[in-house]
Specification:
By secondary structure, the protein is of the alpha/beta class. The protein has 3 domains: 10-217, Spore Coat Polysaccharide Biosynthesis Protein SpsA, Chain A (Alpha-Beta Complex); 237-299, no CATH class; 318-371, no CATH class. It has 12 helices and 9 strands. It has helices at residues 20-31, 51-55, 73-88, 107-117, 175-181, 193-202, 240-252, 256-276, 283-299, 318-328, 336-345, 356-371, and strands at 10-16, 37-44, 63-67, 93-98, 101-103, 121-130, 160-163, 171-174, 206-217. Helix 2 links the parallel strand 2 (37-44) and strand 3 (63-67). It is globular.
């Protein structure tokens, strides 16, 4: 089937810090896209390796440069990039990536085509390989599929796998979606902001990995995300101070139950292994980071920023919708097919008046939204 071109326009956004050689390669790959690219925002996180001077030489009118007066971290950089996209440009979609992301020439084309041809798509991302196009998957950029239901979109010529989150290594979403869910959480500083943000989107609409869209991640190592047990690089150790704190808030944004499971899991699984396994480097530092991070995370809850003001009514949440439906129909045996039908056809207010528990849940949900 021949793909039908649309008139959609896309802003790419790259956040960079002291990786000039990689930035040059990444920017060249983005500017070499075959379709849809309109602008490129480069957020320079106060690099001191000549990045600012190099960016000043770029004459391509599509490139907009923001030289931050301070290092905002990856999270702050992406927050700033999306804000600039919303406030200074009028393109339809924003496409985020790190400075060590090398996108294939048609990566953007497949993302936009999939978004345009399918309904209920909140974000799309690329398949991410490590080091080279034919390399292994980049393990830190493998998104979580929606359990069991991910195959529902594999019937098209341009297939996608449904996922519930994504890293900021070639992920795209719309201007309208930012108005719904707000900006990435800049207070994370580093690690986890991408998962929390795309979790937010996937609770409103579905996310997909578009299998024909490919990006190469030229990270230093092909490591697992947040693997403090096997971490041996002392230059990366400081990041785990943020990892565990941020992980707890990401879980809280899903549910209080999920937050308790994540916090307890870190203390019950990772902490004992750091303390008791043989040949663990930086053992006591790591143990302190896990404990401090988890307990800081329990109190860490910065507000979500909205460029055009927070919506007056809560945006439909898939998690809240399914919970309210269960309370409204406590005797119904739920199946995955039924869950998909509920997501496609129900709104939260459709479940009012069924049971007192459902009514109370809906009222509490809306009250909590207004108080945040």
């Amino acid at each position: 089937m021949e793909t039908k071109m649309t008139d959609k326009k896309v802003t790419a956004a790259i956040v960079t810090y002291n990786r000039l050689a990689l930035l040059k390669e990444s920017l060249a790959a983005v500017l070499n896209q075959t379709d849809y690219l309109s602008h490129v925002i480069v957020v320079n996180n106060k690099s001191d390796d000549g990045t600012k001077e190099y960016l000043a030489t770029i004459s391509d009118p599509r490139v907009l440069v923001y030289n931050s007066p301070e290092n905002l971290g990856g999270a702050g950089g992406f927050n700033q990039a999306v804000r600039l996209f919303m406030e200074q440009l009028d393109d339809d979609y924003v496409w985020l990536m790190d400075d060590d992301t090398m996108v294939e020439p048609d990566a953007l084309k497949y993302l936009v085509d999939f978004m345009d041809e399918h309904q209920h798509v909140g974000f799309v991302n690329s398949v991410v390989r490590w080091g080279a196009r034919n390399g292994n998957p980049s393990w830190m950029n493998v998104p979580a599929p929606r359990v069991f239901t991910w195959q529902t979109a594999l019937n098209y010529d341009n297939p996608g796998i449904e996922v519930v989150n994504s890293t900021f290594v070639s992920v795209m979403f719309s201007r309208a979606m930012v108005n719904k869910v707000g900006l990435p959480q800049k207070e994370y500083f580093i690690w986890g902001d991408d998962m929390e943000f795309t979790n937010r989107i996937a609770d409103v609409d579905r996310g997909y990995t578009v299998v024909k869209s490919v990006a190469v991640h030229k990270s230093k190592e092909n490591s697992m995300p947040g693997d403090i047990i096997r971490e041996k690089d002392d230059s990366r150790l400081w990041r785990y101070r943020y990892e565990f704190r941020n992980r707890v808030l990401t879980a809280r944004r899903i549910s209080k139950r999920e937050m308790r499971l994540v916090a307890w899991g870190a203390l019950r699984y990772e902490l004992p292994r750091v303390l008791l396994k043989r040949n663990i480097k930086f053992r006591w530092q790591k143990a302190g980071m896990i404990i401090n991070g988890v307990f800081k995370g329990l109190a860490f809850n910065p507000e979500i920023e909205y460029v055009n003001g927070k919506p007056k009514e809560p945006i439909r949440s898939i998690n809240a919708l399914l919970r309210a439906y269960q309370l409204a129909n406590p005797d119904e045996r739920m199946t995955l097919d039924r869950e998909l039908e509920i997501i496609d056809t129900y709104q939260l207010d459709d479940l009012r008046g069924k049971t007192a528990k459902a009514d109370q849940f809906i009222a509490d949900y809306k009250k909590d939204y207004q108080n945040k």
